[in-house]
Amino acid sequence: MTALCDRLLARIARTGPMSLAEYMADCLLHPDHGYYTTRDPLGAKGDFTTAPEISQMFGELIGLWLAQVWLDQGAPARIVLAELGPGRGSLMADALRATRGVPGFHAALSLHLVEASPSLRALQARALAGFAPCFHANVADLPDGPIYLVANEFFDALPIRQFQKGQGAEWHERMIGAQDGRLTWGLAPASPIAALARRADSVTQGQIVETCTPAEAIAGDIGRRVASHGGAALIVDYGDWESLGDTFQALRAHAPADPLEAPGTADLTAHVAFGPLARAAQPARASALTPQGVFLERLGITARARVLAQNLAGPALESHVAAHKRLTHPAQMGHLFKTLALTPEGSPLPPALDPGPTCP
Question: Which domains does the chain have, with CATH numbers?
Fold first, then answer.
């Protein structure tokens, strides 16, 4: 049992069961015992690996995508280049290396990173020392101006709530309580949930729908910035247009784990519902939701892979080929992960993406 588990059990004894969102927030961001605040979670020695750590090609292509959008929007002289949850800084380092030949792009940008983890901030500062990154605790703290933003595997770690469909328009919130000294699942009494009224007819009794109020608030902030000042935001994550089913999961040492066991020691995530993000981001315009593999292929990842392969042999070449497949193949990250772009209404359609649906 962890120190954080003891704290959570004591809290439940005092105040009753907690929502999943409260549980996730404590497990991930508790100042003394939170998963992200106490470790570097990435890589072979960590619990998971993100696309930028798999291959430099991922960050390179996203960097060129951002630069092309900047050019298509008239190459504004001063821009905010931002990343949410930058990990070790690998994506941004690769993006900046790939765009150093784009005339005027580096001169125009100031680099801003939204990161809660002190240990990861230190890694990012070293990886991006040549660009003097400014760190922020929240998206709301980013400066005004044309913003070119990327969020790769950021939204999936934001705290969610889960609701199980009851009878008619009523829902039971899934809660976390305690029994025999252990954390356990339970259901709150049924009640109408205004935010889920639009889903009442499409979800059957017993099914679970997840909501993420923090994600919608952040998307709203980004959307207002993009619509007011120009620029673009690219969101890359696993999920789909709408939430349906229990997608809450824990990873420890690259393997699934019980999310209620040893809180604070595993990565907790859930699939992203992109539709609510697109709706919250209005009046910014959302693109179509595009699988990561399709997006990267349209940007030319196979051609880039062939260039890099020319100087490789043996195990290095095998690893390179496997990385390309992992990022793009539908059975791996290619279909599960999706991309969504936000741009100002009336601006050119971003590269590699299709026009999006009208969001009610």
Answer: 3-34+161-210 (no CATH), 51-159+212-343 (3.40.50.150)
